Amino acid sequence: MADPNGLTALTLPNDLREAIADWRGWLCNERRASDHTTENYQADLYAFLGFVTGHLGAVPDLKDLLRLNPRDFRSWLARRSMDGMAKTSTARALSSLRNFYRFLERSGRGQNAAVQSIRNPRLPQSTPKPLAPDDAMAVLDNAGVWQDEPWLAKRNLALFTLLYGCGLRISEALDLNANQRPSGDSMVITGKGNKQRLVPVLPIVRDAIEDYVRACPFAPDGKEPLFVGARGKRLVAQVAQREMRKVRELLNLPDTATPHALRHSFATHLLAGGGDLRTIQDLLGHASLSTTQRYTAVDTEQLMAVYNGTHPRARR
């Protein structure tokens, strides 16, 4: 793996390369992090190492990383800001670094308190941006419209129906193996932090997945990936996002209409239909109720929009 500056594992000193390999193993085997999470963490670390290489004038070794001071880390944050990196992206990158440095300490390689002293960037309070119910259904109706291969069209429909019908994160859906697909009225999902939750499954979701599996030429079975690409490998998020972008452009939907927006739509439409926050929290796998409460703001906004657009007094 390389960072945008071209830094790769082959250019790193042995001690740092071995530490990164052990860290990846620890993330996968002990922390049970998904492949998606592990790859993102490593990408963040390599981007940081690319910055440090330019900052110090040479590729760092492990001792160099342990000697970095708060000023060095603040320079890195300033560079990200100058490069126009989103605060949410920087917050995740900082979390990745802290995780790596904690591993170095746990594995007896040394510690650096400076990285723990750096404050997280203040993130804007964002409101989820769901699709309107009619738009969500239009996405499903057109999920495979751009696909020449019928089985790929069925795959897109199955994936988008699963995201909207069960409120899954895109990583949770793509991490599923064939033997984990729903066969009854519920399924067990392993989410963030390796936490499991029970999610109800509508017949339309189950039927869409089975229709795709029957059509798939790679016949996913057992521990093989459920959702695969054109060559039979596990489908990656970038491809799912690209397929959603095609549908979005066809329907003239905003840029916020992403696969993750289907999860937002699931929660918002449940809430609008009378679902209670605690239940929706469990269905989404949120650790904190405050995260789920963001959807109440969306529901209120929609309520006010309807009121302002239809009430005679509001239109005066």
TrEMBL record:
> Which segments constitute the Core-binding (CB) domain?
14-105
- InterPro entries documented for this protein: CB (IPR044068), DNA_brk_join_enz (IPR011010), Integrase-like_cat_sf (IPR013762), Integrase_catalytic (IPR002104), Integrase_recombinase_N (IPR010998), Integrase_SAM-like_N (IPR004107), Tyrosine_recombinase_XerC/XerD (IPR023009), Tyrosine_recombinase_XerCD (IPR050090)
Where in or outside the cell? Cytoplasm
Q: Which GO terms describe its molecular function?
A: DNA binding; tyrosine-based site-specific recombinase activity
Note the subunit structure.
Forms a cyclic heterotetrameric complex composed of two molecules of XerC and two molecules of XerD.
Family, per entry: Belongs to the 'phage' integrase family. XerC subfamily.
Q: What is this protein called?
A: Tyrosine recombinase XerC
| Organism the protein comes from | Thalassospira profundimaris
Query: Which gene name does the record give?
Result: xerC
